[in-house]
Write a structure and sequence with these properties.
The complex is a heterodimer of chains A (416) and B (468). Chain A is of the alpha+beta class and 416 residues long. Chain A has eight helices and 19 strands. The radius of gyration of chain A is 29 Å and the shape is extended. The longest helix of chain A has 16 residues. In chain B, helix 1 runs parallel beside helix 4, helix 3 runs antiparallel to helix 4 and helix 3 crosses helix 6. Chain B is α/β, with parallel strands linked by helices and 468 residues long. In chain B, the strands form five sheets. In chain B, strands 1, 2, 3, 4, 5, 6 and 17 form a seven-stranded mixed β-sheet that branches. A five-stranded parallel β-sheet of chain B has the order 8-15-9-10-11. The longest helix of chain B is centred in the N-terminal third of the chain and has 26 residues. The termini of chain B are far apart. The C terminus of chain B is likely disordered. Classes of the chains: A alpha+beta (416), B alpha/beta (468).
Chain lengths: 416, 468
């Protein structure tokens, strides 16, 4: 017979399999916990509704199971679950009412209720250890009868915390004592502006939460630059300044469509990857106050002229500090073009919650070997693609940048 | 004068202070323990728990000798030699105090006898017999305890109006003794004096004696007192007292006047904070005069800690001893806090009352849903075998998790039994955990197991049936 996931009650009808507590060949008793399921509300064990020998396990760790779905198959040999209520008071803590409608036992899925003045249900040793580690035991689910928290429960809680809390708290910055620099010479102090503080915080969050890798390459921008030069005047006639950036954006949008994983965000709370079916590109703008990133929407649907227009407008707003919050939100990928200033490759920091960012350096004339024999002077544009290695593998990044280089090198008249 | 350098100075050599000093020494600190009395031990050892228990034990003999007539054994009238009783009690105290002093020596704790007075946040002046000594310390622990409160209206300077300290001296057995205050001190000493032969009247301002304990646990004590005392008057207040020859004239609120040979005032205790020089430190006190501390026993002065009665809360030796550990652990840089720690309470009346954790009354007052399982001692073979079935064991239980939140016991030896309750609550035990532990037969500890079985509706001896 198949053991199915029972209705869980209280609005939760599905969950993710956290662990499977039995293996094929095991003999299970009725009501013996067979797997741990994580619902929106908590993690709890699911009991077997019958006894027997496990012949097959359908569920896998990480599976999303809904009520009624098969968990495992049992070769019968033990009869169905007895009525759990052995006495008038019903089950204690982890025992669960039998079929047809078992539910997650409340005592084992949510932390037990607290009574003022009475310690959390855990031995003094466990309580002291938890306090020492800064673990709030009122949040820990005790698996023993009465919601009693064991050392193993504390360990499980810590593992769960590390596995990714919904919004991982930024580690408290170590206490850093001020250094008196004036002892070595005259100094001047200026407080951080609010913008700088925000940048500082966001960069730190991004840097400390995302494992960064940066992929380098160069694109031959000779043709692209000629294109810009050639059309500058026509654009100007329409009141728009044409630069390299809108063209790069067009190429990036096309490459993103080919590599949708670069256009995702990681939902750390649900362990889901969110694929966005729109292509809103953030463009880093260097202003006097600091870095700002306005977002140009639907780049894939816009003409270069429209993109250039949007970009000019938003960049101007950024410089005048007139950008609204909304104009900096919703980006799916960011471009930081330092070509106008100088410098070659650099390692940009991913603009969280995006998963990748493209850094562009200043194009420089370089001798390039063509057709294995000729050396030609070409304008080579440095590209640096930083990405969230949790989400994107190195191979994907290499493929992305190869396609991007190709897209950039193949941009031609029709795009304008 | 040269001042003495030390890491830790503990002011007060009671069960909090000497525990702190010893533990600090065990942790490798240089410690000086300052005690104003010639003996270590504090109120508990010298003029509290220990001598009162010695006297209660003596009194119990008189009572039990009388009771045994029911069992066919009669003794002659007891002859009371007060001097000998006092001497025996003194020897008990001296033995213990001497033991504490020996242990202090063995641990290398320097004991300085004299009054301590804070000069500032890092210096304590001690007035010893040999003159002033100045101690420069890194941390001080104040453990100076409390003393009996003596309201102005009763403070006539007449030695016939006693606090517990004088009552424990048993200078005489007064014919008529009035006890003002039916708390645990009044009830315990009332039991002593009643056994020695006094006619005891207890007056209590509140509607019940032993306030704080659940009424069903108090009832057997009240019943016993009804017989052993002349009277227990509840909702009664004494307005004032006056000397009337060799007696004390007591005037009650409402105007009634009575004459007593002696009066024991046991209306509470106040901290021993005056004359300690606290104003020279940053230590702050609450509106009742107790020193303010955080759960780490730290006062508002970063160098000064305080423990025991002087910080208020339950004025109990075992609370002080635990606070001593907390303070030393905090000083040593370890994690420690006095938070959510179960402090058992024991009243050594006849029968004894003991409880820990949540009481039924508290649950009701705070709207905490609980189930209560009671096992009457009339169903205990052990209780019956020594003729004291006036007892009750009860568990206060969280109905949802079946966790034990509180335990209350009234009966002979309740104080010895309550520790199982403390362990159960501290360990987060469920009622089933207790029911599943074999308790030896025939003992009173079985009543705890049987109360757990009552919770599940299958206690073996809920009916007064002889155990097979």
């Amino acid at each position: 017979m198949d053991i199915k996931l029972p209705r869980l009650g209280e609005g939760a009808d599905s969950g993710i399999v956290v662990s499977i507590l039995v293996k094929e060949g095991d003999h299970v008793q009725a009501e013996q916990p067979i797997l741990e399921l994580e619902t929106e509300k908590a993690v709890g064990t699911i009991p077997s509704s019958a006894a027997g020998t496990v012949t097959k396990i359908y569920a896998k760790i990480g599976d999303k199971l809904s009520a009624g779905q098969n968990i495992l198959a049992l070769a019968e040999g033990g009869g169905v679950a007895p009525v759990a209520a052995l006495d008038k008071r019903g089950p204690v803590a982890t025992s669960v009412p039998a079929a047809p409608e078992p539910r997650l036992p409340s005592a084992a899925t949510v932390p037990a209720r607290q009574v003022p003045g009475i310690p959390v249900a855990a031995s003094p040793t466990v309580r002291r250890l938890a306090a020492d580690l800064g673990i709030d035991l009122t949040r820990v689910v005790g698996t023993e009868p009465g919601g009693r928290i064991t050392l193993a429960d504390v360990r499980a809680y810590i593992v769960q915390l590390q596995a990714g809390a919904p919004e991982p708290a930024v580690a408290a910055a170590p206490v850093i004592e001020s250094i008196d620099f004036s002892q070595w010479g005259p100094v001047k102090k200026t407080p951080l502006t609010p913008i700088r503080r925000t940048i500082s915080r966001r960069m730190h969050e991004s840097w400390s939460n995302i494992p960064h890798v940066t992929q380098f390459d160069e694109a031959d921008a000779t043709v692209l630059l000629d294109l810009v030069k050639k059309h500058k005047a026509t654009f100007e006639a329409k009141g728009v300044r044409l630069t390299l950036t809108p063209l790069v954006m067009k190429a990036v949008a096309a490459t993103l469509q080919k590599h949708p994983i670069f256009n995702t965000s990681l939902d750390e709370a649900t362990h889901e990857l969110v694929y966005k079916e729109y292509y809103h590109l953030g463009v880093a703008v260097d202003t006097e106050q600091g870095l700002l990133v306005p977002v140009i929407r639907d780049v894939n649907k816009k003409s270069v002229l429209e993109i250039a227009k949007d970009l000019e407008q938003l960049a101007e707003k950024a410089k005048q500090r007139k950008l609204s919050g909304d104009e900096m939100k919703g980006g799916t990928f960011t471009i930081s073009n330092q070509g106008g200033i100088g410098g070659a490759h650099f390692t940009p920091i991913v603009n969280r919650p995006e998963v990748a960012i493209l850094g562009i350096g200043r194009g420089a004339l370089k001798p390039v070997v063509k057709d294995k024999t000729r050396i030609e002077p070409r304008v080579m544009m440095p590209l640096a693609l930083s990405y969230d290695h949790r989400v994107i593998d190195g191979g994907s990044a290499a493929r992305f940048i190869v396609d991007l280089v190709q897209a950039l090198e193949n941009l031609n008249e029709p795009v304008l | 004068m040269e001042s003495i350098q030390t890491q830790i100075v503990v002011v007060g050599g009671g069960p909090g202070g000497y525990a702190a000093a010893f533990y600090a020494a065990d942790k490798g600190k240089k410690v000086i323990l300052v005690e104003q009395e010639p003996h270590l031990g504090g109120t508990c050892l010298r003029v509290g728990c220990i001598p009162s228990k010695a006297l209660l034990h003596a009194g119990k003999m008189i009572h039990e000798a009388k009771e045994s007539a029911n069992r066919g054994i009669t003794f002659g009238e007891p002859k009371l030699e007060l001097a000998k009783l006092r001497e025996w009690k003194r020897s008990v105290v001296a033995k213990l105090a001497g033991g504490v002093a020996t242990i202090a020596k063995a641990r290398g704790v320097q004991v300085l006898h004299g009054r301590g007075h804070f000069e500032n946040s890092t210096t304590l002046r001690v007035e010893t017999e040999a003159g002033q000594q100045f101690i420069n310390y890194e941390q001080a622990i104040i453990a100076v305890g409390s003393k009996s409160a003596m309201p102005k209206a009763f403070d006539l300077g007449n030695p016939r109006i006693m606090t517990s300290t004088e009552a424990l001296e048993v200078e005489e057995v007064p014919q008529d003794l009035l006890i003002v205050g039916g708390g645990y001190i009044g009830m315990e000493l009332g039991t002593v004096y009643a056994a020695l032969g006094s006619r005891v009247v207890v007056v209590e301002a509140l509607p019940s004696i032993l306030a704080g304990a659940d009424p069903d646990l108090v009832r057997p004590v009240a019943k016993y007192a009804e017989k052993a005392f002349r009277e227990v008057r509840l909702n009664t207040k004494v307005a004032k007292m006056a000397t009337a020859g060799k007696q004390i004239k007591v005037i009650f609120e409402g105007g009634k006047e009575e004459l007593y040979d002696r009066v024991l005032v046991s209306v509470g205790r106040v901290p021993n904070c005056s004359d300690l020089g606290l104003e020279s430190t940053k230590v702050k006190r609450d509106d009742k005069g107790f020193i303010k501390v955080n759960p780490r026993q730290q006062t508002d002065d970063p160098n000064i800690y305080a423990i025991g009665d002087v910080v208020g809360g339950a004025l109990l030796a075992h609370k002080a001893a635990r606070e001593a550990r907390v303070a030393i652990e905090v000083i040593a840089g370890d994690y420690s806090e006095f938070t959510d720690i179960i402090i058992p309470a024991v009243v050594f009346t006849d029968p004894e009352v003991a409880w820990c954790g949540l009481t039924e009354a508290e649950a009701k007052a705070k709207n905490i849903p609980v189930e209560v399982a009671k096992f009457p001692w009339s169903a205990s073979g052990r209780a019956l075998s020594f003729d004291r079935t006036d007892g009750l064991t009860k568990l206060i239980v969280d109905p949802e998790t079946e966790r034990v939140l509180g335990v209350g016991i009234c009966g002979h030896g309740a104080g010895e039994l309550i520790s199982e309750g403390v362990l159960a609550i501290e360990m987060g035990a469920t009622v089933r955990d207790i029911a599943l532990c074999i308790h030896p037969h025939p003992t009173l500890s079985e009543t705890i197991m049987e109360a757990a079985e009552v919770f599940y509706g299958h206690s073996t001896h809920t009916f007064t049936r002889k155990k097979a």
